[in-house]
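QA checklist item 7 of 12: single-chain prediction sanity check.
[x] sequence parsed
[x] length recorded as 299
[x] structure emitted
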Amino acid sequence: MAAPPRLFDRTLHRRRLDRAARAFGAADFLKVRAAADLVERLEAIMRNFPVAVDLGARTGVFSRLLAQSDAAAKVGLLIETDLSARMLAARPGARLQADEERLPFASASLDLVVSSLALHWANDLPGAMIQIRRALKPDGLFLGAILGGDSFTELRQSLMAAEAELTNGAGLRVAPLAEAYDAAGLLQRAGFALPVADVDRVVVRYAHPLRLIADLRAMGETAAMLEPARPLSRAVIARACQIYQDRFSGPDGKVSATFDILTLTGWAPHESQQKPLPRGSGTVRLEDALQAVKRERES
């Protein structure tokens, strides 16, 4: 089987995370939203997780929110990992610099793996999720959130239009992301049982497109391609901002920026888990069931 194409320069991505570590707290609103949702989901699960890992912990948003929640008592040891050592610096607790593409955990050693807004930078996302599933004990839980779908669509369209207009060509400026309809399929490909996926669309309003770019830089979310496009000229940036404002501003003059957070839930397979009935094992014919529904509606 051919290896998946490598799109991202992980070394460059790490350097950008290192640079963002000091300012990350000023632009962590998406991380907070995604992590808070994962904590809320944990609160609804009646299980304990003695050993857990937070992949791409950044500055520890998930651990802080977990500590403030009813789910805190369910999680024993929480190991925070990040590609950037600077993101993990000066914080208490178990911390480990690790690459999400090459996990250092033994098979069947973890009860819970969470990851909020980090795995979309993996060159082989299904492969990274397979590693997660293998690191989980049978019936272990994975809760993940990635950026995908129509995230950055306004910025992508504006940059492409400006480059096409001024340079007769357009480079790849915004990282490709998983489609929302593929989210559950990613879990199935990785071998997770009981896969569930949903989308949380967040629309943020900015006074100017450059404020969005500043936030992306502070998040460490600026493009890190293995084959970067040529540098953007000031003329192209200015034209892209103008197009952005023309196409995506509201009556108040502020522009919209879309972020789709894809949340993934899957369990490492275990014989105790609920399984679908074998094909052909039904005891009621579909025709009879439909007739029963029809009679109920007419009564």
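[x] summary fact logged: The two ends are 58 Å apart (CA to CA).
[ ] second reviewer sign-off
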